[in-house]
Design a protein that fits this description.
The protein has a seven-stranded mixed beta sheet, with helices on both faces. The protein has a two-stranded antiparallel sheet with strand order 1-2. The radius of gyration is 21 Å and the shape is elongated. It has helices at 5-18, 24-36, 40-45, 53-67, 72-76, 97-107, 127-135, 148-160, 202-205, 220-228, 248-256, and strands at 78-81, 84-87, 116-121, 139-145, 167-171, 182-187, 233-242, 260-266, 272-279. Helices cover 39% and strands 20% of the residues.
Length: 280
């Protein structure tokens, strides 16, 4: 006898709870809605409906993957970001809501009608580059990453979202292959101190270490970014960085000493997360 939608959800919630998953009920609903190509509202309204045996088996496999620590976004293959659907794989960092704020802060500096040259360093999935290209229709964006696999994901996203004509992707170890002068540089670089990596949530540890490990104090790549940013910018250019809690003040001080006017911004949780600087 087939289980109902409601019983399947209850069973999945129990499995996820026992695995230590946060928000087990919400995640159980998210996975089943994804499998059935429906909404969580439908699951609630039609919880008495039977779930076919093949769907039940497929659902149990998805739940088992998540219970083993695989992030939801890798299971479903996408993550919402700035009103875009970003494809993700284990080769890229999963876009966070906090990073949406970096896009919003950076975009507010410019008139949407202005022709702009933008550089996104450590682009990963391309989420920042894509969001800025969508919000600033006259911008030309360069997206750089050291990982060829990440760039493949980013290019796929650009093509799927029909933004490929606005973005140039380059393989580059930070500034290595970057050329030009930019009105805005943005980056969400690896910023987790190396010693903190083993203590991260299990799902975060499933993400690529290359996109997380910021060296002993988390600022190894950030220092390289800010020390050379002046060579690729002009007076009035904007530099926007996402960082870890406790880092922004020190980074802002470094930028202020290098000819920038830097300010620290908090995220939606009240944590100092971003540094926005304008070149003087």
């Amino acid at each position: 006898m087939s289980l109902t939608v409601r019983d399947s959800l209850a069973q999945a919630e129990q499995v996820l709870t026992q695995s230590g998953c946060t928000e087990p009920r919400a995640n159980a609903e998210f996975l089943l809605a994804h499998l059935l190509h429906t909404s969580r509202t439908w699951l609630t309204a039609f919880g008495q409906e039977p779930l076919p045996a093949d769907k039940q088996q497929a659902y149990e496999r998805l739940v088992a993957r998540h219970a083993a620590g695989e992030p939801l976004a890798y299971i479903t293959g996408f993550q919402p970001f700035c009103n875009l659907e970003i494809s993700v794989t284990p080769d890229v960092l999963i876009p966070r809501p906090e990073t949406e704020e970096l896009v919003e802060w950076a975009a507010h500096f410019f008139n949407p009608a202005a022709p702009l040259k933008i550089l996104d360093l450590c682009t990963g999935s391309g989420c920042i580059a894509l969001a800025l290209a969508a919000q600033l229709p006259h911008a030309c964006v360069t997206a750089a990453d050291i990982s060829l696999r990440a760039l493949q994901v980013a290019r796929h996203n650009a093509e799927r979202l029909k933004l490929q004509e606005k973005i140039t992707f380059i393989e580059s170890n930070l500034w290595e292959n970057v050329q030009g002068d930019f009105d805005m540089i943005v980056s969400n670089p690896p910023y987790i101190p190396s010693g903190d990596l083993p203590g991260l949530m299990r799902e975060v540890q499933a993400e690529p270490a290359l996109a997380l490990d910021g060296g002993p104090d988390g600022l190894r790549l950030t220092r390289q970014i800010i020390r050379r940013a002046g060579r690729f910018t002009h007076a009035g250019s904007i530099l926007g960085l996402e960082l870890c809690q406790g880092q922004p003040a020190a980074v802002a001080a470094l930028l202020n000493g290098l000819g920038w006017r830097a300010t620290v911004k908090k995220d939606i949780f009240g944590i100092e997360r971003f540094v926005l600087a304008q070149k003087i």
